[in-house]
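Technical appendix A lists one of the benchmark inputs used to test multi-chain prediction within the project. The record comprises two sequence entries:
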Amino acid sequence: MIVLQAMVDGLSLGALYALIAVGYTVVYGIIQLINFAHGEVFMVGAFGSMTVWLLVPGQQLGLWMLPIMLIGGMVASVAIALLMERVAYRPLRNSPRLAPLITAIGVSVFLQEFVRLFYGRIPGFPDAKANVTFPTIEGVTGTAIKLGGLDIDRPTIFTLAALIVCTVFLYLFVNKSRIGRAMQATSQDPDTARLMGINVDRIIMIAFAVGAVLAAIAGTAQGMMNTNINFKMGFIAGLKAFSAAVLGGIGNIWGALVGGLVIGVLESLATQVMPHGSAWKDVWAFVVLILILVFRPQGLLGARVVDRA
Amino acid sequence: MDRWVEMLEIKDLKVAYGRVRAVKGVSFTVEEGQIVCLLGTNGAGKTTTLKTISGLLRAESGEIWFDGRRIDAQPAHEIVGLGLAHSPEGRRIFPRLTVEDNLRLGAFARKDKAGIAKDLQRAYGLFPVLYERRAQPAGTFSGGEQQMLAIGRSLLSHPRLLMLDEPSMGLSPLMMQRIMTTIAELQQEGVTILLVEQNAQAALSLADYGYVLETGVITLENTGRALLSDERVRKAYLGED
């Protein structure tokens, strides 16, 4: 039973990593940049939905607040992601690959510090130098649901449902839409994509935006799971999601989803089943990262079946 | 109206990669309905010239006029919409997309659904193998099939001027013949063609007019037939001594 419980908890955690991991992998697939500031896009998403909640008068906790908060988080995340692409990465598009990578780390630190120092200065907003209590929305937070001896946390249900909806949306978007096909073309051969009439700059912006939308959902889910958020929440979560993206095969969206779930379940099992496991909570994702880089660097689903003849 | 109309005009084009200038002041014209051939050895600047016309590279100086409109400052993704398609060297099909997705991407700049459907049928009509294998990933194709796909994909933009860079590269003689026949057919349908070829014999037999490019400058120009019998061309490009 403890194993089963650990797996349920792991799926919840894994769904969170999966939602974040998509952002790393989509951007990497188009411009071969590891956007190390993507963890902060997730953090800003959490603060964005928090902010919307603060702006609605009367500290509303009804379930109807959830979609409004999600939209607020998405707007904040997308805005930050597009801004970093335009200001920090686009000018370095033709530089050696190390330059945008280091810039990404700089953007990451900048965003953490910016939220830490300035969020609380807005009148009526809580100080963000430490944990900020996240609103406990009815229905998706509160007492766990009992199901045959298992405790299923309410945020878990939300997170898994969000992951399923996002997966369907991504599948349709990537494979069935005109823009999705243009994204695949751009990722395979950007110059030839331009010859087809595809505006590659716009495709890159869409890639950042898609990752940001999913990160904002994850940020809100994390807030409800942990009942609080803070300026550095994106750091470890981002690195674990990055590991998930590498595990699945960086550049492969489905790999990121699978990798996220695998890392979440492994982490939960190791933490709950092994003696003193919880002290090592943040180790397992990186053990997986190292193992996969050594033994299967292309990732679980990263093998290209067919390429240029 | 038998007067030729200039469709493409290049004026004193100079292009550099970093500090190396690959095209050093090239001028030429392509008239409507013609097949014009650019000849030259590797590194002569042929591919660079085409890439600059389609907007993938920026010129240092010079002018590019297409259809009475100056296009040398326009981004590549807008140029194809004007009716100027570029089928790049090495075919550059999208290997992990299906044949049909590749073809449809050729029409990305268009909005007229009926026209796209018609041009899709036209591409399938020209190359039935593409229709038979339309659901397969394009990367599974042989070189010749990929070349057919690349040409078919360019046609989906419904170009009035089609630039083909080395369409016969790496193909068997039979397949090459097939591609050359297709180019002649396209001209019959009214498509103007700017052809870059290593295979001078085949290209000049088709071409109305030809230019010889050597290390970034045009050294010779004449009708296709005249170039074919020109001693300098025969020595340098047709392997005769």
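Chain A touches chain B through 23 residues (CB under 8 Å). The two ends of chain A are 51 Å apart (CA to CA). Comparable benchmark entries are summarised in Table A2.
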